[in-house]
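Marked as duplicate of an earlier ticket. Keeping the data here for the record.
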Amino acid sequence: MKKEIIVNVGEHETRIAVTEDDKLVELHVERADSERMVGDMYQGRVTGIVQGMQAAFVDIGMEKAAFLHISDISLESDSAARYDIDAEEEEVNAEVTRRHKYESIEAILKVGQELVVQIIKEPISTKGPRVTSDLSLPGRYSVLAPGSNYIRVSKRIINFAERRRLRRLVYDVKPEGVGIIVRTEGEGRTEKEFTNDIRRLLKIWYKVKKKAERARPGTLLHKEESMTSSVIRDVFTNDVDRLIVDDKDIYRNTMKYVKSIDPELKNRIEQYDSEVPVFDTYNIEPEIDKMIDRKVWFRKGGYLIIDHTEALTTIDINSGRFVGTKKDPENMILQTNLEAAHEAARQIRLRDIGGLIILDFIDMYSHANHKVLFEEFKSCFDNDRAKNSILPVSDFGLIEMTRERTKPSIMYTLSESCPTCHGFGRIMSKETMAMKVERWFMRAKVAKAGKRYQVRFHPDVAKFMMNEDVNRIKEIEKAHRFKIEMVADELLAQDDYRIIDMIEDVDITALYQGVRP
C-alpha cells in the first residue's frame, strides 16, 4: 500500500492530509484561532466533587471547569497506553481495578487540593475538557509516564525475543521514578536512539515539575507540540513512502527534526515548490469539499447517509443505482455491503468521528455473509490510530462500534450550524469559506487570469471577510496584486459565493475550484 503525507501551510491555517493508495483517509486542520489542547498540562485546583459520578471538577483557568473521573486519577499508571493503541494488556481492566481499590473519590481528592493535570479530551459542545492526573509525554520511540516505575512494550511488537531485548535495553537507560512504554516504532531501535529519546522527554518533564512548584492554578505548564510536529512524530514512520511539504520553513524544520530522530527517513521528504496549490495537484481539495456532505457515493452506485446527533452517529447504507444480477441477489447485496464497509470506514477516519457509531447495512439472510462483512469492516481499521471496539453484525443487520474521541470531529472545524434549519444541518463555516476563496485566487494567479474582480458573499461572510483585525480581501489583493470589489448579496446562501471578471463582465466562479480534470 502506498502511503503519503502532504502538508499545506497557509496564512491562517495548516492542513495535513494522509493518503493511502491515493485516497484521503486522514485530514488534520490547525487554525490560528483554534489551537489544539490534547496533551497540554496545567496546574489545577479541585473545585467540586460529585460522589454519584465518582468525578471531580478542576479549575485550570478555562471558561468551563475540567472533568476528572476517578479512572483518570494517577494510581497505578496506565496512562501512556493511550498514545499507542493496544500498548498495554492491563489497560482493558484498569478502570475496574481502580474502582475496586477505591470506594470513593473523596478518599483521593479534596476540594481546594492542587494537582497537575493533562488534557485528554478537548471541550466538545457544552462540555468542558476532560483531564487526567496520570501524566504522560510521548516521544518518537517511547512514552514517559512520570510518577510510575514500570517498563512495558507495545503489543504490536509480537516477536518475543525483540520484546525481551527492548525491556532490557530500556531498563539500562531508564531512571527511577518514571515509567516507560516502548512504542511500536521502537522495534529494532538501538540503545543510543532510546537514550536520546528518553533524555529529551525527561528534560521536558523536569521543566514541568520545576514550573509546577511555584505555579498558581490555571497556569499552563506544558504545551503539546504543534500539529505538524506531532503528526510527523506519530505518523511519519517506515510505512510512509513520501512526506511532501509546500512551505520552506516547515520543510527545513522537518528535515532537521527527522535527521535527529530517524535519519533514514530524510530522503523521503520532498519540498513542493510549484505555483499550483499542493492539494490541487494531489486532488485532495474536492475530497475536503465533500467532507460535510450528508450523502456519500461509493463504487457500484451505492451511497451512505451520515447523520450526527448528540448521542451517536448513524451511517445508513443504500444500494442506490446498483442493480446487480437477479440470479444471485444475496451475493449482490454482500458485494454492495463490502464496498460500503470500506467507504464507511474511510469516512469515519477522515471525518474523525468518535463516540458511539451505528451502521445499518443492507439486510442479508446468510450468517456466513454476516461474518464476512464483519471481518472485512474490522480489517478496514487496521491502520487507524484511534482505539475502537466493533461488535459483530446483529440480526437486524447493524454493526455497533465505539471509537476514541479526543477532540471534536473535523466536521465541526470546517462547518457550523445551518441558520435556516437551526442546527439540524451543517454548512461551511465563514472561516472555511474565506479559505476557499483565498485558494480560488491562488489558482487564478497561477492561471494568469485577469486583474479586476467582484466577489459576492452572503452579508455575514462579507462582514467576516472585512474584519477590522484581519481584512482578508486586502490580504488577497496584496498577495496577488488583484483589484477586488466586494458585494454583500442577501440572495446568496452563507456557504455560496460568486466571482465576476469585471473586465469581461462574466461569472467565472467555476473556473478555479481546484477540481482536477
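See parent ticket for discussion. The chain has 13 helices and 27 strands.
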